[in-house]
Amino acid sequence: MDVSGWVWAATAVGVVGLIVFDFFAHVRTPHAPTFQESVRWSIFYIALALVFGVVVGMVWGWGPGSEYFAGYVTEKSLSVDNLFVFLIIMTKFAVPREYQQKVLLVGVVIALVLRTIFILAGAAAIEQFSWVFYIFGLFLVYTAVKLAREHHDAAHPDPREERDGLAVRMLKRVLPTTNEYHGDRLTVKIDGKRFLTPMLVVMVAIGSTDILFALDSIPAIYGLTEEPYIVFTANAFALLGLRQLYFLIGGLLERLVYLSQGLAVILGFIGLKLVLHALHVNELPFINNGEPVEWAPEIPIWLSLTVILGTLAVATVASLLKTRNDERIASSTES
Q1: Which residues make Cβ contacts (< 8 Å) with residue 90, sequence separation at least 6?
Q2: Are 68 and 225 in contact, with CB atoms under 8 Å apart?
Q3: Are residues 220 and 307 in contact, defined by beta-carbon separation less than 8 angstroms?
Q4: Which H or E run contains 198?
Q5: What pLDDT score was predicted for residue 154?
Q6: How many CA within 13 A on the CB side of residue 103?
Q7: Contact 161, 143 (CB under 8 A)
Q8: In degrees rounded to 5, what are phi and psi of residue 52?
Q9: Torsion of CA 151, 152, 156, 159, to 10 degrees
Q10: Cα–Cα distance between 264 and 266 in angstroms, integer?
Q11: Quick count: other Cβ atoms within 10 Å of Cβ 312?
């Protein structure tokens, strides 16, 4: 897949343009978005991502196009899991609902910058060292096992998630902060002294938290494609609609009780795919005398996409059936 410099530049300008549009059209004037507004703009960003995938398929072929769609679906599903943590952070800092859009948009910008750095670093590592696939694959399998044991609950968050992260603790230690919001201002002057407001602190919390998210999302998509342009655009489109998705499915998050387990299956599958690919292109001298392992199969992208979509469908349906059954049992017990 040959992507010219001007295509990269045009794509970057387009992504920045969408963020600027988002700010002036929705975030500049603080307000809590309605359900209809969230639906409209969620559909807009999903449709935009799908149209872009069709363009990729028509210009570069449906091999790269399928890789983009698989990567986008994976990153979008992982971003839904990220919303659990965002919800916990928002609740902990008691962010007024009308200011949450600004926090999320700044978090998306920080996430895009951090992930772009990770993407370029990952591409450089893969270009030079094929054994990086072993590391990516084993890390995803480890993450899958860890994720399968997780249970997000915004009403009763994990005590480990209630503690301030390293970035927030360092910020509070170095700079004076206030516990009261002053509109959507990031700093405020009190008695002649400048203080940071909780708005800035929560933005740092969400932005720094995305570093942890990138540790599994970037290797996951590199398990589906080795093309940095596809990795970048799939991440960008998944993150661009995150703000609207937060308000759209905020109430649904509590019902997706098996989402972590579904994502664990997806990450485990991609991790296995990466290890098999590493064996297929093996250069490590202590594995098969430095020769490729011929029996290691290459999992085709259509199978990856089928597994990803199928797992998400099963996890969603199973979650909704369980929560509905639990509600039925609770209502019968009360009566």
Answers
A1: 100, 103, 202
A2: yes
A3: no
A4: helix 198-222
A5: 47
A6: 32
A7: no
A8: -60, -40
A9: 80
A10: 5
A11: 20
What are the φ and ψ backbone dihedral angles of 190, each rounded to 5 degrees?
-125, 125
User: What confidence tens digit (pLDDT) does each residue in 61-89 have?
Assistant: 999 999 999 999 888 887 776 777 777 78
* Paired residues of 293 in beta bridges: none
CA quadruple 67, 69, 75, 80: dihedral, nearest 10:
-160
Below-70 pLDDT ranges, the chain = 81, 150-167, 171, 211-212, 250-254, 334-335
Helical axes 198-222 vs 259-280, angle rounded to 10°:
50
Record the pTM: 0.76
Tokens 């008691």 — which residue?
Answer: 94
In the chain the first and final C-alpha atoms are separated, in Å, by 63
**Which is nearest to 53 in space by CA: 42, 62, 45, 41?**
62
Q: What is the pLDDT of residues 152-192, one digit of tens each?
A: 554 444 544 445 566 677 767 777 778 778 777 878 888 78
Instruction: Find where tokens 């670093």 sit.
Output: 121
CA distance 123 to 226: 7
Tokens of 102: 């600004």
Q: Enter the tokens of residue 42.
A: 């969620």
Q: Where are the beta strands (DSSP E) in the chain?
A: 187-190, 193-196
- In eight-state DSSP terms, residue 177 is B
List CB contacts of 286: < 8 A, sequence separation 6 or more: none
Kindly report the three-state secondary structure assignment for every residue of 290-321: HCCCCCCCCCCHHHHHHHHHHHHHHHHHHHHH
Are the C-beta atoms of 309 and 182 separated by less than 8 Å?
Answer: no
Q: Take residue 247 and report the two structure tokens written for it.
A: 């308000």
Q: How many CB atoms lie within 10 A of CB 305?
A: 18
- Residue 30 CA, chain-centre distance (Å), reads 25
Provide the pairing of β-strand 187-190 with 193-196: antiparallel
